[in-house]
Write a structure and sequence with these properties.
This protein is α+β, with helices and mostly antiparallel strands and 157 residues long. The chain has one domain (3-152). The chain has four helices and nine strands, in the order βαββαβαβββββα. The chain has helices at 14-18, 51-61, 73-81, 143-152, and strands at 7-9, 26-33, 36-44, 65-69, 85-91, 96-103, 121-123, 129-132, 139-140. The protein has a six-stranded mixed β-sheet with strand order 1-2-3-4-6-5. It has a three-stranded antiparallel β-sheet with strand order 7-8-9. Strand 5 (85-91) and strand 6 (96-103) form a beta hairpin. The protein is globular, with a radius of gyration of 16 Å. 26% of the residues are buried.
Length: 157
C-alpha cells in the first residue's frame, strides 16, 4: 500500500456525509482507496451510542470494503466481534507487512444484491434497482449513491 493512493475523508465532507461520518459523531478521518474505506484514525465523540456500528453498517451498505490497519486493542476487540478477518498487507512506508482487519459487504449488510457481471442494473426484489460502478464493481442501492461514489472512485477501466 502506498499513501499517495488514498483520498482523505473528513467528517462532514460530501462523502463523509454520505457515509454518515459527521462532525457531531466523530473526530479524525477515514481514507478511501478504490472501493475500500480505511478506518485508522477516528474517535467517537459520543461513546456507547453505537456510532461506529452505524458507520460500519453504512459503509458496507454502500458496497465498500472496510479495512482497519493495526488497530489498538479496543478497536481490535470491536472488529473481531463484528466478524472482520485478519489479513496482512505490505506497507511501503515501513517496508514491512502490517495487520489489516477486513470486512466485505455481504448480501445481508447491503441494501441490494450484487448484479450479474454483464449488467449495470439489476433487480433484487421486484422493484428495487441496483446500480454498479463500472470501474470497481461496487454495488449501490440508488443512483445518487453511485454518483457520489464515482466522484471518489480511483479505479480505472
Amino acid at each position: 500500500m502506498t499513501e499517495e493512493s488514498f483520498t482523505v475523508i473528513e467528517p462532514g465532507s460530501d462523502l463523509g456525509k454520505r457515509l454518515k461520518f459527521t462532525k457531531d459523531k466523530f473526530a479524525g478521518y477515514l481514507s478511501l482507496k478504490d472501493n475500500e474505506v480505511w478506518v485508522s484514525v477516528i474517535i467517537s465523540r459520543k461513546p456507547g451510542k453505537h456510532n461506529l456500528t452505524h458507520l460500519f453498517n453504512r459503509i458496507l451498505k454502500l458496497g465498500y470494503v472496510i479495512k482497519v490497519p493495526q488497530p489498538f486493542p479496543h478497536m481490535e476487540a470491536i472488529v473481531k466481534a463484528k466478524g472482520f478477518v485478519r489479513t496482512s498487507e505490505y506497507w511501503d512506508k515501513v517496508d514491512e507487512n502490517i495487520d489489516v482487519w477486513v470486512k466485505q459487504a455481504d448480501k445481508d449488510s447491503m441494501s441490494t444484491q450484487s448484479p450479474s457481471t454483464d449488467k449495470k442494473r439489476s433487480h433484487y426484489h421486484k422493484d428495487t434497482p441496483v446500480f454498479q460502478c463500472p470501474a470497481c464493481k461496487g454495488v449501490f442501492g440508488n443512483r445518487s449513491d453511485l454518483n457520489t461514489h464515482r466522484k471518489f472512485c480511483k479505479v480505472t477501466v
